[in-house]
Amino acid sequence: MGRCLGLSRLKLPPKDRRNQVTYIPPHFREISPDTIGEIIASAPLACIVVQTDEGLIANHIPLLLGPDGSLIGHIALANDMHRLIAEGSEVLAIFRGEDGYISPNFYPSKAEHHRHVPTWNYQVVHVYGDIGFQHDERTKRAAVGLLTREHERRLNGKDAWRMADAPPDYIERQLGDIVAFRITVTRTLAKSKLSQNREERDYLGTISGLRATGRSALAERLEKRWHNAG
Amino acid sequence: MGRCLGLSRLKLPPKDRRNQVTYIPPHFREISPDTIGEIIASAPLACIVVQTDEGLIANHIPLLLGPDGSLIGHIALANDMHRLIAEGSEVLAIFRGEDGYISPNFYPSKAEHHRHVPTWNYQVVHVYGDIGFQHDERTKRAAVGLLTREHERRLNGKDAWRMADAPPDYIERQLGDIVAFRITVTRTLAKSKLSQNREERDYLGTISGLRATGRSALAERLEKRWHNAG
Predict the structure, then answer these.
(1) C-alpha distances in angstroms, B226 versus A143, B101, B109, B123?
(2) Cβ–Cβ gap B55/A21 under 8 Å
(3) Is residue B223 part of a domain?
(4) Scanning every residue of chain A, which has its alpha carbon at the shortest distance from the alpha carbon of B55?
(5) Taking CB atoms and an 8 Å limit, are A122 and B58 in contact across chains?
(6) Is A207 part of a structural domain of the chain?
(7) DSSP string of B105-130?
(8) pLDDT at B229 (0 to 100)
(9) Is the N end or the C end of chain B the one with fewer CB atoms within 10 Å?
């Protein structure tokens, strides 16, 4: 899979950076390329943030991890992002997986010693990289094609909508209204804060508690980690 | 409700800013204080971003909109954020609501003219404001108390966990390990990209399509907008 190829180039940094641009205690640091790829694939709407003379700008754009390890996307031509950011600028693409409030009530050990406080579980991937914009139709068509295939295959399987289903002149006009871009990854920071610092009964209690309160998707993330670790 | 009081101070900017720090076409601009409050309340885990000498830093922190319109939260004392950011610096707090891929297959009108391409729906609130940190126990206890009450009430109702359930010395030590903060809002940008630019049958088709593909929470956002507009 192209995704796996790309992941080996995601460039996880050494653990001893003195100042942390994202607070990640060692037990919450996510270093599994598979898990990082899953977070990106399951929550592809990244928030792209960059500092400019106009202040911090932030746009939410679906991204795809390309076979060469770069992130691929496109924005509206009307989106000032490609005018405000100089070619090659460093941007931060933030991917946010499942998240949810964790109540001390989830922990069976609470009844014994009551030494618990609430917390929040979540998975995030922060990808720093240099952005370049492409205005030629061939690159734009390729970017749209890759994203469309990925999401249509996942959602509609054999009934996938294809660009060729639409009239060529219509697609051409749509391509004229967008700008493609590619983010060349310089470093990746990822965090899985999934109660893995809890004792077994409390970890399992958290899974049950999340399920009981309608947070099944987050419960599944904990469950998967449990099975992988066991 | 405190939330409503606070919202009147969220300071929506004029529509004619020349350069957009977030691309928001007029038909996707969210100006309803109720909707903005709902997005913040339903997706309280904000990503707080700020430019520092170390580069862009980003941390995911649950926030609460206080009665005075400021955002209230706390971080671990070990989190470098409060050391890297000067008191009063402008930060961006990004709240992300539901999101999902929208296939042209969702639109009944596709069968007629095939003039459709995929898109992505989502709701986001970007709050810019000046951050101040508090290290005194009284403020920290108040911040933790407000957040705990909000989430426990929602999740556990009459079985809500309370700080008083834990031993006082334990809570005291926990409070020693955190720093409280408050973001005084300077401006708020919000976007509801919910297919509201589609004709009626395609809008309703999108709601059905999202439900059929397991995106009920996003479908509900479209449905609610439909009922409010009708």
Answers:
(1) 33, 19, 19, 15
(2) yes
(3) no
(4) A21
(5) no
(6) no
(7) GG-TTHHHH-----EEEEEEEEEEEE
(8) 79
(9) C
The beta-carbon neighbor of A103 closest among B22, B126, B161 is B161
Which ipTM value was assigned to this complex?
Answer: 0.93
Could you tell me if A99 lies within 8 Å of chain B, comparing CB atoms?
A: yes
Q: Can you give the pLDDT at residue A8?
A: 54
Which element (helix H / strand E) includes A59? strand A55-62
By residue range, what is the domain housing residue B16?
Answer: 5-100+118-196
Asked if B20 and A124 come within 8 Å (Cβ–Cβ), the reply is no
Mean pLDDT for each consecutive 10-residue tract of chain A (230 residues)?
Answer: 47 59 92 95 97 91 94 97 95 98 98 96 98 98 97 96 96 98 97 96 98 96 88
Nearest-CA residue of chain B relative to A153? B103
pTM strictly above 0.90: yes
Report the CATH number at residue A37: 2.30.110.10
Residue of B nearest to A152 (CA): B103
Chain B residues with CB under 8 Å of A171 CB are 117
What total of structural domains would you count in chain B?
1
Q: Is there a domain that residue A32 lies in? A: yes
**Cα–Cα distance for residue pair B194/B196, rounded to 1 Å:** 5
How many contacts, defined by CB atoms under 8 Å, are there between A and B? 179
A107-131 confidence digits (pLDDT tens): 999 999 999 999 999 999 999 999 9
- B130 interfaces chain A, CB cutoff of 8 Å: no
Q: Is residue B208 part of a domain?
A: no
Q: Which of B53, B101, B116, B193 to mutate to test the interface with A (most CBs of A within 10 A)?
A: B101
**According to the model, what pLDDT value does residue B7 have?**
52
DSSP structure class, residue A61 = E
**Burial, B42: exposed, middle or buried (Cβ in 10 Å; 0-12, 13-18, 19+)?**
middle
